[in-house]
Structure to design on (192 residues):
């Protein structure tokens, strides 16, 4: 059963019956709002949203990043399946797979961000979501609807943090502006 998260809400990633999740995927989906064209006809537009996963150590330093220009973390525990340039299609448009059991011990937080590489703001994006799925069962364990209409073109979606011996997910939903994750680092650091 999936949990719909609100900003700031935290959910444990413990499996029902005990034990922690070992392999999860973060999915990002979106649609572009059709623009009014000549003579009132709707015209489709392409919007390139990018999902990124930022790996932080216990001191809050950026240790690694996975995004469309680096599809794999240095240790191989985080893998981006590829860049979707338009948001076309149903379901997840971009996916980042995470092997939590292989995350190096010095990494304490994974922060997931989304930004509009093409620069359009979120008032032109609809049906945007981020979701966490147990990769071994395919079951969606948490979903965060990206409350979207606004003049921002990026959002700090969620973070997955070491929580004792396991992991937990916190929905962040902080708006930001920037075409790549590097522009978002000041906003991200406020949520570590």
């Amino acid at each position: 059963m999936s949990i719909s998260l609100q900003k700031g809400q935290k959910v444990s990633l413990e499996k029902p019956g005990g034990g922690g999740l070992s392999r999860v995927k973060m999915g990002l989906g979106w649609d572009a709002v059709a623009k009014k064209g000549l003579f009132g006809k709707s015209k489709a537009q392409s919007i390139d949203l990018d999902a990124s996963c930022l790996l932080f150590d216990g001191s809050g330093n950026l240790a690694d990043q996975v995004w469309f220009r680096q599809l794999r973390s240095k240790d191989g525990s985080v893998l981006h399946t590829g860049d979707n340039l338009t948001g076309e299609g149903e379901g997840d448009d971009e996916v980042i797979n995470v092997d939590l059991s292989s995350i190096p011990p010095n990494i304490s937080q994974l922060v997931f961000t989304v930004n509009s590489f093409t620069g359009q703001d979120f008032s032109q994006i609809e049906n945007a979501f981020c979701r966490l799925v147990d990769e071994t069962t395919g079951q969606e364990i948490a979903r965060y609807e990206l409350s979207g209409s606004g003049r921002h073109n990026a959002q700090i979606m969620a973070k997955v943090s070491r929580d004792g011996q396991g992991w937990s997910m916190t929905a962040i939903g902080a708006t930001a502006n920037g075409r790549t994750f590097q522009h978002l680092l000041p906003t991200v650091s406020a949520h570590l």
About this structure: The chain has one helix and 14 strands. The chain has a mean pLDDT of 82. The CA atoms of residues 92 and 161 lie 23 Å apart. The first strand starts at residue 3 and ends at 4.
